[in-house]
Specification:
The chain is α+β, with helices and mostly antiparallel strands and about 270 residues long. The chain contains 3 helices and 19 strands.
Amino acid sequence: MLTFETVNELSLKVTCSGSDTLFVKAGAFIAGDNPGNKNYRFEKVLLGPQQSLAQAAFGSLMRRATGENFPLMKVTMNGDSVTYYADKGQHVVIYQLAPGEVVSVESENILAFTPDCNYQVRFIGSGIFSQKGLATSTLTGKGPNAYVALLCNGNPIVLSNVNSNSTLCVDPDAVICWFSQRGYCDPQIKTDLSWKNFIGQASGESYSYEWNSHQPVTVLVQPKNRWNPSWNRLISGLKSRYRNPLRFHVSAFYFNVFYLQLLFGLNLPVS
């Protein structure tokens, strides 16, 4: 049996009683303590944590296609032991899922989870202008020992409308995950787009995730937006190619309009 707890908010302590297994972000192990000789070992998960080969292969393809792929290792513990895990000094948040409870989370925010969590990748149909993709990772509790440890840049903000029946609005680049006991409970995508978005004159808050009072969820938000180095390198390359600011903004505007109309059939106002 496994139990999770945090150490100084920045590390995960996993206590194993007996023999068990654990799925952890590859390279996250930092220390271990056990009576006698070392009784745990690590192995890379090549396809996925699913039990059958077909499910694991399909899950691996889904993760690679959607950008939700992340290096995962399996820790096999043969006896009582204590192991510690961390990643780049990020804060660690622990949650125990009830049977049937679902958490939708970005793969980069997953540190560890137990075998009592059913892992899969699914499309949510959002993230057009966000560093967040069109898909998300999902962990569903399927047993009494369904623990998940999540990573956060700073202490998270916890929002919930389970008891208040309020509307929650969150920046997709800041959201870590959302929990629900009523299935996936995915957010509505709210956009406020115009031609100003494509010439660098937007407010920076052109889209958001929104859960209304009929969607009881708990949302974790980190105090730092995601940063996509590939996207920023692309913008820097365009700016160096089109040194004239007017040419750069006009080119970017028509490229984005064409791209959106091609993919989503959006009719954007140009005035």
